[in-house]
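Allow me, if you will, to draw on your knowledge of protein folds for a short while. I have a record of one protein: its chain in single-letter code and its fold written as C-alpha cells. I should value your view on which stretches of the chain appear to form regular backbone elements. Thank you for your consideration; the sequence and its C-alpha cells are set out here:
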Amino acid sequence: MDKVFNKLRNLDAYPKINEDFYNRTLSGGVITLVSSIVMLLLFFSEFRLYLHTVTETRLIVDTSRGEKLHINFDVTFPAIRCSLLSVDAMDISGEQHLDIRHDIFKKRIDSHGNVIEVRQEGIGAPKVEKPLQRHGGRLEHNETYCGTCFGAEMSDDDCCNSCEEVREAYRKRGWAITNPDLIDQCKREGFIQKIKDEEGEGCNIHGSLEVNKVAGNFHFSPGKSFHHSIVHLSDLLAFQMDTYNISHTINKLSFGASIPGVVNPLDKVHWVQETPNGMYQYFLKVVPTIYTNIRGHKINSNQFSVTEHYKSTELGHFNLHPGVFFFYDLSPIKVTFTEEHVPFLHFLTSVSAIIGGIFTVAGLVDSFVYHGQKALKKKIELGKFI
C-alpha cells in the first residue's frame, strides 16, 4: 500500500512549498484583491447568462402541405361608413370569397373616433309585412313567403327574402343595384335610410380570415364586390360618390398567432389620403415561422415584410376600384426560433476558464511587479554602497 501511495505522491502536479519560503508583499495583496473582484464580476456575468434563455435561429425549407393561412386584422376607416365597407379575399388558385361576414365585426364610429354601435351582420333584419312574392302578388294569409329576386334568380326555386339576399343574387349575376328604393325587401327593411343615417361616420372593422396557403390578396372596399366582364365593380351604385376617402389606420395585422418579442411592421400604421380617389396597395412577403419556448410549447405563425404603393386616378388609372388592398406571397424558407438554456458543462467550462485565466494573468503580473521591485531595490542598495 505504501508503494501505491508513493506512486500517487510522485504524480502530484502541484508540489507544495514550505511556508518558510513564502514572501508576501503589498503589491501581491493589491493584485490579489483586484483579481478576486474581477473574477467575481465575470462569474456573476456568466451565471446571469446561464440563467437566461438564448434563442437559436435556423432556416429550413418549408415542406408543409395542405395548411391554411390565418389572417388577423383590425383596421379603422374614419371616413367610410360600415354599411358600405366589405371584405373580399381571393388567391391564385381562383378561389374567391366576396363580402366575407364570418368572424368579421364592425364598429360604427363618429368623427371623434367614439364607438356608436358594434355589429357582426349586415344592415338590420327583414321586416315581413305583406312583402312582394315571387309570383308578383303580396303575401297572403298562411302563404309561405318566397320573395322575388327581381330577375336575378338562378333557378326556379330561388327566393330572396331579404335585401341582402337580393344584393347577393345580383352580385352572382354580375349586376349592380342602381336604385335600392325599387327593391321591395330593401324598402321594407329601411335599408336606404340606415345607410343615410350613417353619413359622416367611420368604421372600425376587425376579425380573421382563413385562406389557402398560396399567394393571394384580401382587400377592404366600399360596396359589395362583383366582376362584370374583366372589370372589378361594386353594387349600391345609387350611393356611389365621386370620391372615397380611404384614409386608414392599421391597428393590427398578423398572419397567425403572435410571437413573443416580434412586432409586425404594419401595426399602428396610419395613412391619410391626399389625392381625390385611388387604391392603396400593400405588398407583403410572408415568411413561415415556428417559435418554440423554453417549456417546449410550439407556435406556428408567420412574419412578413412589406412595401407600399398608391394608385391615383390623377395618373390615368380611371378604372380603379377604391379600397385598401393587401397582396401577399409566401416564402419557401421557414424560420425556426428555439429558446434554450446554456448547457451546464458549457457554464462550468466558462467559469473554469475565468478562474484559471485570471489566476494565470494575476500570477504573471505579480511576478513581473515583484521582480521589478526587487531589481529596483538592488540598484538602490548598490548605489548606496558605491
Observations:
- DSSP finds six helices and 16 strands in the chain.
- The first strand starts at residue 53 and ends at 61.
- The longest helix spans residues 344-385.
- Residues 121-128, 226-233 have pLDDT under 50 and may be disordered.
